[in-house]
Amino acid sequence: MKRLLTGLQPTGVITLGNYIGAIKQMVEYQNDYESYIFVADLHSLTVLNDENNIKENTKSLIALYLACGIDPKKNTIFIQSDNEYHTNLAWILECHTYFGELSRMHQFKEKSKKNTNFSAGLFTYPVLMAADILLYDTDLVPVGIDQKQHVEIARDIAIRFNKKYGETFTVPDCLITKSGTKIMDLVTPDKKMSKSAENKRGVIYLLDSESDIRKKIMSATTDSDMLVKYDKENKPGISNLISIYSSLKNVSIEEVEEEFKNSNYGNFKRAVADIVVEELTKIQEKYNYYINSDCIDKILDENIDKVRKIAKDKYDLVKERISIGRSKKL
Ligand code: AMP
Ligand code: TRP
Question: Which CATH class is domain 200-289?
């Protein structure tokens, strides 16, 4: 069985866009792959601000993933900072990565422009991500398109290292989440629904109250022709609501159009709100259970020895390959 690994940053509450675009797919993958999911809390240190409560967000994120259907029996869930081999390997890989390569990363260029007083960690961020991936002989890395370049640099580092020192790392592939399910902002439907949007009325968060969800959907931007028809270009608002309904109900776009062909926008929006409320209420009930139980600690305790052992073996092999430390029989 191929091994799949992904990391999630514990920043902000997850949106309906994350759920439909990424988490639902992870729930499908868990049956086909040996899956590792970790909270990339060390990566969050690169953009620290006073509002970030990383410890609390980490627990909440794990509870939400479990509530969304990530099965702890099928996925090895852990926290990055609990396994010290990630940063150990990252240093060695940094010494095998060129300054020029890291200078070309889109995310670094963008984030360093916004805040010129950035840390060295923001610059070396992709190397820690490469260590996360390469420690576990990962075959596939499911990520959004914005992270593709980071998976590619992990591939480049692995290929280069293997060539220089002999076969050490599995070369990972990127698994880009399908683009058909991009959920747009409810107020400005030409923009992606994003955790960091300034106007929160356009964004549905998984822990929003029922009345907030209904208010946001009922006041979503639409158009003036009153037809429930998918046309992304001319009817972005209605098309977005159709996408949401079709994803959550597991029906095709055409079936949604057929179901609402005689409806006005008010009735259609009410139906979208009903299905979103139904789905998120179920998730929230499970979330409340997990966050108030000792399940999460138990899962993390059970997994840490397993992931440390895998990571230690790889780290020892790397040390042997580059000839540092004490000689050991592997
Ligand atoms: P982010 O919240 O940007 O870190 O993205 C985390 C994951 O959720 C990535 O796989 C994204 O592709 C996915 N994602 C984020 N926002 C949306 C959205 N509005 N629609 C669909 N997928 C999304
Ligand atoms: N950088 C990723 C993000 O912001 C999170 C991440 C860290 C990750 N390490 C990873 C994703 C390893 C996949 C594999 O979304």
Answer: mainly alpha
